[in-house]
Amino acid sequence: MKRKILFLSAIILAFIVSATGVRQVMAEVRLADDKIILNGTIKQTMYIRTQMNSTEYKEYHKTHVDYNRFSALLKAQFKIKDCQEESINFITALKYWYELAPVYDPKMRNGMSPAVPERDRNWYSRTKDRDYVSEAYIDYIRGPWNIRFGQQIVVWGETDIKRTVDIINPIDVRLGSPGVDAWEEIKMGLFMLRGTYQTQLPGSLLLEALYIPGDFRPARLPVEGTHYGPNPVPNKDGFYPYMPYGVTTWLFDKARMDAPGWELKNYEIGLRVRGFSYNIDWTLLYYNGLYDAPIAIADKLNPAFTSDYILKGVVGSITKTPQHLTFPDEKCYQYPRYSMIGGTAQTVVPKLHDSVWRLEWFYNHNEPYNRGTNADSSKLYDTVKRDGCGMGLNYGDKFTLGNFTHKFCQDKMLDVSITLFYEKVFHWDDDIIISESGRGHRRGASHSSEIAWSAQQFFFNQQFMAMFMGSYNPIGKYFICPIFSYVPGNHWRWELGFPTYGSRTPSNKGLHDKDSVLLRARYEF
Amino acid sequence: MSLRRFQTNGAMLCLTLSVLAVLLATPVVVCAEQLNFPLAAFSDEELAKVRDWEKTWAGKKIDQNNVDQIKEFLPESYAGVYKKPEVWFEPKGFWFTIVPYKRYIETKGMIEATNKYHTQVKVDASDIIQNYADIAGMPFPNPDFANPAKGGQQIAWNYDFNTHGDAYHWFRTGPALEVKQKTERVSDSDMYELYYVSRVDVDPKPNLMASNPKGIRRGYYLHMYKPPEFIHTSMFNLRYLDYSKSDDGYMWYSQFRRIRRVSTAQRTDSIDGSDLIYDDEYLWDGAIPRNTYKYIGRKDLLCSRQMDIKKLERVSGQGMPNGIIRERLNTLVVEVVSKDKNYIYGKRVWYIDPESYYIQWTDIYDQLGRFWKCFENWTNQYPEQTTGEMKKVIVGTEFMDFQRIHCGISIQECKGVGLKEIDQKNFTIDNLQKGGY
Questions:
Q1: Is 0.85 exceeded by the ipTM?
Q2: CATH code at position A320
């Protein structure tokens, strides 16, 4: 209890000090006659769970703060050559994070079967290996050409939150999620050669091509027992007390082990054309690469899982002795190749209140899926490939709320964004496992739809901001998050949010019991 | 006799020199006589009185103690700021300096274009210019002051045809201030402006392109360095000759790494915590036909027209810099009312420099007719890269909201005016993408 009070006091004190003592200083750091430009962010993010079942709390937590991350991002631009004809830059972004929750909460890390498995604790709680480098590439510009070579993050989409066509880089959702965190923190950079060429053709066509020579990185999935991960299994269940971690960890870790490394045969290519016609800015794109998410090889995974996990659990239950879990050498997961064509479009429609409309669409070819009896992932029996299509349509507009925006918001208008998503998988059969994919499908349903929104209003000369964002899926799954932020000057940003989740569909629960209070302090320079 | 001859010869010499001087200055003076353009702020008689007044005041530092003595030459609101600085949480007070009036004469290019095109101006029954893309210079060098509505509109058109040296690059530092808390949120950005039509100083004139199928009037590009959340965010904006067509705006928002089409039609949305709406850039940045105008008359005001921004003195959180340099100027006063009945401002009153057609001061009233804001432009002259002539540009602006006691400043360092080349590629998506990291 003393620890808790001390910790909260420190946070409140830091808030008061920074909120009252903010003064102007330089935003970015420029060195060597502006040849080196540095900027970045330092951030502390905390989730205080307001919804946690009492069994989980008693067994695995000493505090409701199950996420408390320090993170930093440093971006640097080194100007190697900068003249009218051509420029050469070296761009790099380095990141670091440290997750404090398992450090100050012994119940999250202690015991034979802790909330956060020991084998994954370091992997998820701090930056490791390649995680340190978000991006590092050479940027060369000459005339209509722009060539970038090195580890990069590419953004191809137009809509927020959902990645409809924005699929080049895999995402890391161990400690963050799109919309809440910056792309540099969510996406993992890939080594690639990327070039654009501005043509003189009608429609100002801008051609873009990228080639990833086999640098494959699978999506990073959340760790069991952590804020974004599956809940830890109660130890009173007779099966688990002698197991060091749950089923999810075994499966996710095996999938990670089976991910192919850097091999030329794992190449990925992307092509994009950007143009402007009939007052519409559009892009057309093509992508061919490996699927970022693991697909199980049923005839390998089932026996391996039985012998290396289930049987160990049974032995542990009978003998009452802690078990050491193993993994088979042979691959149980694959990351098959698939391709996508898609596009985006955006325009302003004067007749509709000068609103901005954005459309994103895709057609996936040979997207891989697992099948299980009645789409049950525990009854896996094979793998299939299917085509599918989807779209996201976004409407963005600004409104004046009568005297309210005049009086309290200094005439800053309310910014509204509403997006509709829809996707459908063709040649459907009811055994295709899709509901756990996070794509919003009900078990056995070939299609999914969702509406997402955000309304943002600044107050008092933009020192304060209130935002109400959320999404609703007709299967009964929703996400609501009011966020309030305070920006007292140039560098500090304080945020308070209440992310709330719910789902009426047992097969697609998402973060249904992770309602929290979000506290975030950010220093930008 | 010889003395007389000498005197006669001396007189002849003076006459010859005078004629020679007149002939050398022909392009300016002859036109000026024909058109009364460029206008001078003061007649000779008025100027003599001003010079007399300057004997007392030029070089004087004006502050809380003596502002009452010159308050007739300041907007009432600003006189109050100097008189009661505590209202703006600046107990030490503000001060500025008076300097002698210095006439500004427009560039030769502007004068020549005015001579050439002012007779070709075509207007409709509402005095809206119909051949905007075919003319340059001041369309109405001698506004019809006898007719307040027509004269007001003509002054507004002259304002609109000031192309700021055709191609202009400046670096803006713009703190939005919370004077009570002494905090400020600073935005820094490089800004570029390129006129596609009505060009007077930089070749090709008057139009940048032989063919302008999109009907672009002006391109505007900015690259932001502050605040940190917007670092390396850039945007461009294209304004069209078609008065009814909204600008096209595109933004590379560095945090999302996306090129977003932005709606530019919401001109009354306030800009990033400042007291400005989008129409307030330059103190008016919209299509002239959106308003009705009424010429009110002339008013002598202290205006900042020789401002060296390096001499401004200010500490962080201070609402208005000290050390502003102001001179007497006989401004043109125009009342401006939006044709949109729901427009955020009830009316504006412009105080326009008759020599450069910049708005030096503007008073802004709310829809209930209550005084709301007062903005001041500071200008100075810089040599044009192309011609070497001095061109007046805006080097800063003070924005004060008197209802909320909130203010902002824009300090604009001239990086080049009358530039030979601002690349049109600045106003392309390709450029946004290339600059986006």
A1: no
A2: 2.40.160.10
